[in-house]
Amino acid sequence: MGRLGDADVHAAFVEFRAKETDKCMSAQCLYCQSVRAKNTSRQRQHLLECPPYLNAMKEHNPNSSILEMATNGTPTPAMKPTKKRDHETMSNGFPGDIPGLVSRGPPVPKPQLERDIQLTVQLNPKISVGKTIYGDSNWVSFISGHWHSRWGKGTVVPGGQEKQLVAHDLSTHVDSNFILQTHDHPPAYITVSCQGWRVGPPEILETLSDTTKVDSVDPKSYSFRTYLQMETGDQRYLHLNTGMWVGSGIKRSADVVFDFYKVV
């Protein structure tokens, strides 16, 4: 079993072979870029005296055994943590920056979401294609619809379609393709590709497929999330070609309604 702090030491260095003829590995500190022979004890001693490392630990990992050793002279014994499963790590939040990354350059910009489009589409009854190796397959065609946004408004051209793939737990993957027509004179036409998942408790998802009960379902009891991309050759709307949107939707008896947020 490794000594206390060995994991912190190894995480703070990257190992490499300086020359092909070298028999021993070298180690470079990710925080100050110093290079030394690979030796855990000497690497630990280096970290105890490395200001960039100690400052990073104070900010991002104040419980670091190396930091406590540098501050108090002796580390506080700690229980070895149990390895968390992936879903537990996800539910407890992002673990933080890669060690040393922040100290070597500017932080990665955080994207923002801006509400940009609201869209409603009336649907024909679904057509069941049958059970496939991936799940139950359905096709749904679009009757019509309308939309408005920060950059325009208009209608949904009849004839769009959506492919649905229903998993064994009733989670449903949707893949839609349709065309928006603007109210300009002359109008512009914008093709839309939209994919995502409708997920939730099986009993809720089952109710969503019943047109006589779907309007009684609380939209917060399930998740209907998608991402959207658009394409057009119209000079007035070329900025849409490079945009990205994520959406949240609700299903009703005769239509679906989406709010789309632009990622900026």
Automatic annotation (TrEMBL):
Recorded hits in InterPro entries, A to Z, give: UPF0311
The record's Pfam families line, in alphabetical order, gives: DUF3237 (PF11578)
Region Disordered, as annotated, extends over 68-102
What is the name attached to this protein's record?
Uncharacterized protein
Q: Which organism is it from?
A: Gomphillus americanus
